[in-house]
Design brief:
Rossmann fold; globular; 3 domains; alpha/beta; binds 5-amino-5-deoxy-1-O-phosphono-D-mannitol; Glutamine Phosphoribosylpyrophosphate, subunit 1, domain 1
């Protein structure tokens, strides 16, 4: 949550920082602000609301030219989203400015200490406490990096802090604990930011920072230490996508672009992961095959959409490997004394790699001796760094707040993991594994087919634009798809939407059915699946009570015709893989319906892309 940028170099810091903020706006859009050195003090411009409000302010009152600057786009935690609480915050004498992502948990104690020294914040934020402390340390004679280290040692909680001091021009200092921060290494210029999107137009060379590190950037150098001042080890890496991936490419929304990116994203996730005979090699797996043979339980932890990917994974992994597999919301996991130990494989799924609930779950699991494998889309992020192994999803940057290609590629990574475990533990014949891999390889084309035939879904969105409530039903792996369809609609269209296990309906939720209520139903493929017929019965039950049924069923499944008011056809695929296809129309439906309602699809209200607070 919150996007942070810092810059030192030969360009206009104001332009670089504000453009960087624009690319990070998906992380929070309650307010935005920027600070640059201006003589002995910092000049600050900040404004509640989206970056366009800051743009207007800067157009009226431009900041002085400078080669050093910091900026922030906020997702409010402490204090309302207004101009005063917007970052940057300054020291009491206005010589330095600071921006922050995270929560300083001991801010109240620190505030009381500052009051005894006559330092009283003007905002309601925890951040200003850090700014005042930093000012105090500088007044006591420390240089900016030293002062930052001193302050970090006093702060508790999660924080990334970036600061600039007008009286030490040409440097920006940043620190991180439990919140994201990467360094961009340019030619005669350097950057710090919450993620690489902020500087991707200037450089693709990045440095991943570790926990509890302080980085000082100048135009020509990057220096990293721990909080005690000792030089720290860092990992440089090359970003494997470019500016075009972080732009809308002609679409009205990032989300719509990302839905259409899915065939390529799936192909990239599969690339290089198996040989011609379907034998899998997951090369980022730093857990030995011998260890994987000893695993007696898998626990998947994740949040939101990633949790639903985990639900699908449970069906696939248990079916292919016969290893008991639990799925749990990361925010619940560590608070209930879960049973995990050295023979447990904890699998975490996270698009951003920064979700605080998931990260805390990982730390807890590792303390219990479990091995942790992350499925993640973001190179350089915290979750893979703190895991024993990682399978990257290679979806490219996902900027729309609602996850789309992140989800589909997570599904594929989960399937690959399940098949790999089956291969290592000999729970499936090689030919069976190869057959599923062949089917996975067909998925990009099948998803493309769904995208090419999307007019029907767009018409549905027009028909239901005024609906007050929409239900989604599914069974088996169709159940998490139903949950995902409902989440997309809630977060984008702000209408009541619920996903249910179709078989549970008659245990309560069927009371919600009334005349004309739109209900999407995911129908599993026919073949030998008993659940197909059960779901048909469930559709009959709700239709008899007046529901308008939108049925997602495979091509040629004419048994559904009698019960479907509308039938959206899915290319044929085996049951376990069907979520990859069935999710696509639900994504398109939510995106289109929210567009028709005039909502900001990429930046839905109250949300932020990367949830870095618990
Ligand atoms: O980055 P992560 O996958 O860890 O994020 C988890 C959730 O916050 C995320 O999936 C969220 O639910 C999305 N807004 C869903 O579209």
């Amino acid at each position: 949550m919150c996007g942070i940028v810092g810059y030192v170099g030969h360009r206009s810091a104001c332009d670089v920082v504000v453009n960087g903020l624009r690319r990070l706006e998906y992380r929070g859009y309650d307010s935005a602000g920027i600070a640059v050195p201006d003589g002995d003090r910092v000049a600050v411009a900040k404004k509640a609301g989206k970056i366009k409000n800051l743009d207007a302010l800067l157009a009226e009152a431009p900041l002085p030219a400078a080669g050093t600057g910091i900026g922030h786009t906020r997702w409010a935690t402490h204090g309302a989203p207004n101009d005063t609480n917007a970052h940057p915050h300054t020291s009491a004498d206005g010589r330095l400015a600071l921006v922050h992502n995270g929560i300083v948990e001991n801010w109240a104690v620190l505030k009381a200490d500052l009051a005894t020294a006559g330092l009283v914040p003007t905002s309601e934020t925890d951040t200003e406490i850090a700014a005042l402390l930093l000012g105090q340390a500088i007044d006591a004679g420390a240089d900016l990096p030293t002062a930052m280290r001193q302050v970090c040692q006093q702060l508790e909680g999660a924080f990334t802090i970036v600061a600039t001091d007008a009286q030490q021009p040409g440097i920006v200092v940043a620190a991180r604990r439990n919140s994201p921060l990467v360094v961009g290494v340019g030619d005669g210029e350097n950057f710090v930011a919450s993620d690489v999107a902020a500087f991707i137009e200037h450089t693709r060379e990045a440095i991943e920072l570790g926990q509890d590190q302080v980085v000082t950037i100048t135009a020509d150098g990057v220096q990293v230490t721990d909080f005690a001042g000792a030089p720290a080890e860092v990992r440089p890496y090359h970003v494997d996508w470019d500016l075009s991936a972080a732009e809308k490419g002609g679409y009205d929304w990032f989300m719509r672009k990302e839905i259409h990116d899915q065939p390529e994203a799936l192909a990239n996730t599969l690339l290089g992961r198996h040989d011609a005979n379907g034998r899998l090699t997951l090369d980022e797996l730093r857990i030995s095959e011998a260890e994987l043979r000893l695993i007696d339980k898998i626990v998947i932890i994740a949040c939101g959409t990633s949790f639903y990917a985990g639900m699908v994974a449970k069906y696939a992994i248990e079916h292919w490997t016969r290893i008991p597999c639990e799925v749990e919301l990361a925010s619940e996991f560590r608070y209930r004394d879960p049973i995990v130990g050295p023979r447990t494989l904890v699998v975490t799924i996270s698009q951003s790699g920064e979700t605080a609930d998931t990260l805390m779950g990982i730390r807890y699991a590792r303390e219990q001796g479990a091995r942790v494998l992350a499925i993640c889309n973001t190179n350089g992020s915290t979750i893979p760094r703190e895991s024993d192994a990682v399978i990257y999803t290679h979806a490219g940057p996902e900027i729309g707040v609602a996850s789309t290609k992140g989800f589909l590629t997570q599904l594929v990574a989960c399937y690959l993991l399940g098949l790999f475990l089956a291969q290592v533990r000999n729970t499936r014949y090689d030919e069976e594994i190869a057959a599923v891999i062949n089917e996975l390889e067909e998925m990009p084309a099948k998803v493309q087919q769904m995208l090419d035939d999307h007019d029907q879904v767009l018409e549905l969105a027009a028909e239901f634009a005024e609906a007050e409530s929409v239900l989604f039903l599914g069974r088996h792996v169709g159940f998490p798809v139903a949950l995902e369809g409902a989440l997309k609609l809630k977060e984008l269209a702000y209408i009541h939407a619920e996903g249910f296990a179709a078989g549970e309906l008659k245990h309560g939720p069927i009371a919600l059915i009334e005349d004309g209520l739109p209900v999407f139903v995911v129908v599993p493929p026919r073949g030998r699946d008993l659940i197909h017929d059960k779901v048909i019965s469930n559709i009959a039950e709700i239709r008899a009570r007046g529901a308008r049924t939108i049925v997602l069923a495979e091509e040629g499944d004419d048994e559904v015709d009698a019960y479907a008011d509308v039938c959206v056809r899915l290319p044929m695929v085996s049951t376990l893989l069907q979520p990859v296809l069935a999710t696509v129309p639900l994504q398109l439906f939510a995106c289109e319906l929210a567009t028709r309602k005039g909502h900001d699809v990429d930046q839905p209200r109250n949300l932020a892309k990367s949830v870095t607070v618990e």
